[in-house]
Fold Exopolyphosphatase 2.
Amino acid sequence: MVSRLAGIDCGTNSIRLLIADVVDGRLRDVHRETRIVRLGQGVDATGQFAPEAIGRTREALTDYAALLRRHRVERVRMVATSAARDVANRDVFFAMTAEVLGAAVPGAVAEVITGAEEAALSFRGAVGELDPAAGPFVVVDLGGGSTEIVVGGDSVAASYSADIGCVRLTERCLHSDPPTPGEVAAARAVVRERLDVALGVVPVEGARTWVGLAGTMTTLSALAHNMTTYDSAAIHLSRVPGGDLLAVCERLIGMTRAERAALPPMHEGRADVIGGGAIVVEELARELRARAGIDELTVSEHDILDGIVWSIAG
């Protein structure tokens, strides 16, 4: 029997939808979509969701609800991650999601998940198609507000959610266009401090394969492979050698926002924050080379969304 399920991941920068059929123990995509809504706009400074950010998220979720009805989805799970963990007015956000989502699938609501839950869902979605012989894996889900680092083989062995992400780091440190050397140095110092704590909790030394998830990682792969358009199928499970990865990161960090936006694979809502994401990736790449001898990134288009759907598949 085929089950039609959906997962919605609402993060700091984007809200994402996966509608999938569960067929013979595998997920078959029906519809997969990402919208940049910048829900976490200003959260790091104010501790609250901005009304316009909730408005953008409501608009996207309304469209997603219509898709759930059109595709006759049986069950849906919506999770909110880093930004929703940090704010004082999240009740306003959850009242909105209950109204919009419940209209499509009665009783459906959004939920905040912990960093550990986020890491576990990301890991399950990311490694499902990988050869177990390539493990243990270190899976890195680089979001707008946080970065989840997970190590495991068949299951999660250790995880940590670090409060560094492309939006949070940009808002905190990278104010000029392009960023000044001093701003970049300050951002690196923040990332190194957070990674020092994270990698003290998550032992990456025995890992063999680094798997990167989310928009910064997929865009870096598209740029490293000189894609003229964003090609999800070509990006999925693509590999980026360490030297190529660092070169792309350095290039992005030094660009203006307009220069980044002009790059063919760049999503228009990512150009202003991907420099912050590139700094996180650079520092991770150096740590993984030093600690585990890993000098290649594997990029997966399957991530927390797939993990969310699996979590309600029964």
Remarks:
- The radius of gyration is 18 Å.
- The chain has a mean pLDDT of 92.
